[in-house]
Input
Amino acid sequence: MRLPLSGRALSALLSVLVLVTGSGALGHRWMTEPDPVSVDQALEEYRSSATPAPGQQDAPATGLQPTDGPPDDATAPGTDAARPGRAPSGGGPAAPTPAPAPGSVPPPPPGVYTWQTDGWEEAGFRRTYPTETTRIVTPRDARSVTNNHKFSQDHEEWFVLQSTDRGGVMSERRMKITFGPVTVDRTVVFDPPLLGVPIPHQVGARWQGTWTGATSGSYTGETLEKRTVRIGNEDVEVYVNELRMTMRGESEGEVITRLWYSPAHRLMVREEGNYTMRGGPGTYRTEYTITLRSTRPQA
Output
C-alpha cells in the first residue's frame, strides 16, 4: 500500500509540468524515463550505519520515539492506541533481528530484498517504474521494522511495520517523489495504526478501521483466498488480503491494494495497487504490481 501526493503538492507539481511541457522532447524524457536504484547501491546503503534517508534532514518531524514493550491489548480492529515510533529513515547497519514480543509474529529478516516490478504513475506525464526495484528492511525494536522501498532514484518510500497480537500494522509512511524540478516529501502518521494483515489468518475474515491526522481516513479489509505462488525457486503459501481506503485532508482519494502475505516467511511476497488521488487542477494515478524475487534477503 502506498500513499500519494498531497493535494497542495500535487497542484504545484502539475503547474510545473505544464511549464516543462513547453520545453519539448528533452523535458518529456526528463519527466518520463525512470532512473533505477541498483541492488549494489541498496546494499551499500544498508551496510552503512551512518547513511540517512535521502532528504531526511528536511523531512517533516513527527516527534515519535522508539517503541518498547509488548503491544497494548485490543479487542476490535482499528482501535489500537497509537504507539510511538521513530520517523521512517533509510539505511542502517546489518543488525540481527531482535526477539519478538510475546503474542506477536517475529519481524522478517533484515537485509535488501529485490522485487520484479511492473506499473506506472502519472501526474500530467506518465512514467513507468523500473522492472526491478529494491527494499531495505532494518529492525527498529523487538517487534517493528522500517522498510525503505526504492522504486527509482526519483521515488522512495519508508514505512514502519509493527507486529502486534492482532497482526501486522503500519504506524507511519513517508514518500519522497520527484517529477522534473519538483520534489514532494510527506509523512503520514496512522493514529491508530492501520491493520493490514490480521491474525489468525482465515479466508473470509473482514475488518475495518479509521485513523486521524493531517491525512485522515477509513479502510476495510478482507482475506480473499489462500493459495500457493512461486517465488524464486520456492512454492510459497500465501493469504491474499485486500484493503480499500478512503483518504481525506492533505491527500484525498481512493486506494485499493492486494497484499500477498506468507506466514512461513513473515513477508509480503506480492503487492498489487490501483489508486486515484485528486488535488488542485489535476489527478495523480498509479497502477503497479511488485513480486518478490527471493524470500532470502542480501545483507
User: Anything to note?
Assistant: The first helix runs from residue 7 to 21. Residues 7-49+108-292 form one domain. The radius of gyration is 18 Å. DSSP finds three helices and 13 strands in the chain.
